[in-house]
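so im writing up the methods section and need the NADH dehydrogenase [ubiquinone] 1 alpha subcomplex subunit 2-like record in one place, dumping it here so i stop losing it
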Amino acid sequence: MAWRSQLSRNLKELRILFCQTSPSSASARSFVEKNYKDLKTLNPKLPILIRECSGIEPQLWARYDMGVERGIRLEGLTEPQILKALEDLVKAGASHKA
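--- predicted struct ---
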């Protein structure tokens, strides 16, 4: 999973939004618990923002150069699917570079 160390090269910011108690956010919460430390260790200067809000739909947002943002809804996705969604966002960031 070499792409994990590419986050800071292709993204300016990563935001993960989820509800603290909602069953629809369970996999997003679990993803953060299992992957945040590794992602932050590999990308120490990249802002990785975790936003908890009651009743919010789980989402993953990536901000690229020039303020371009792309988001993915995480409701119904498993942890491996969330990891794949993040990988896709990182790879998409390479195409935003000039």
